Amino acid sequence: MSSSVNQYQQPIGFPLPEWTPRLYPPQQPLEGRTCRLEPLSAQQHAEGLWAAWSQAADERDWTWMFSGPFPNYPAFCTHISAQSASQDALHFAVIDRQSLQPVGTLALMRIDPQHGSMEVGHVAFSPRLKRTTMATEAHFLLMALAFDELGYRRYEWKCDSLNAASRQAALRLGFQYEGLFRQAAVYKGRNRDTAWFSIIDGEWPTVSAALRQWLAAENFDVQGQQRRSLQAFRAQALHSCPRQIL
């Protein structure tokens, strides 16, 4: 990162003379090609989400979540009701545009308009959503909201350091690993060391270009298989629009 020097010859951060606090994210639907994000509602989404999660063979997807697993539908519905009432985090249901059914949830959290920072979290993808184009597009829709529509400077991803799948997903999407926060939390009766990842606004043009190209309909064959990987598109984007320092 670049820096400046003040009148005492001390290094200080680069200036942001035009910076103003950003708006808080609106609670409104976000439309994609394969999925739509809707503000989470227990009345509208709980039953469909329970059906989607009921397809899981076991409860392993809840191992690294602060919540769950849930013994029955009433307990799950209470959980979804509490999430839908939250203002930070702001929870969204991921709607499959083909079936029109909810297949997972994710949220914007630790939202800081003053400093232009927010985090994606509470990512709970059912078997119907995991490892699909919809899963990638759901993340892209929230990233685009943060950077393109609201002008935030920083977008974070944090996970249990032992959750290899989450760490891999962050890197695939274009997040940069920032480090390990040791003994950062206690949950479900055990320690959590937290791995931190982020995308900043100077990196977003490259990340966005790769995601948009990967998500385009022409990148998939009639069976829905990708023609080129996201990593290949990112390498191309890095060559054509190198990272900027803002």
UniProtKB/TrEMBL annotation:
Keyword Ribosomal protein: no
GO molecular function: protein N-terminal-serine acetyltransferase activity; protein-N-terminal-alanine acetyltransferase activity
PROSITE patterns documented for this protein: GNAT
Pfam name, any one: Acetyltransf_3
Annotated keywords: Transferase
Keyword Transferase attributed: yes
Domain N-acetyltransferase positions: 35-193
InterPro entries per record: Acyl_CoA_acyltransferase, GNAT_dom, Ribosomal_N-acetyltransferase
Domain of life of the native organism: Bacteria
Protein name (Swiss-Prot/TrEMBL): GNAT family N-acetyltransferase
Species this protein is from: Mixta theicola
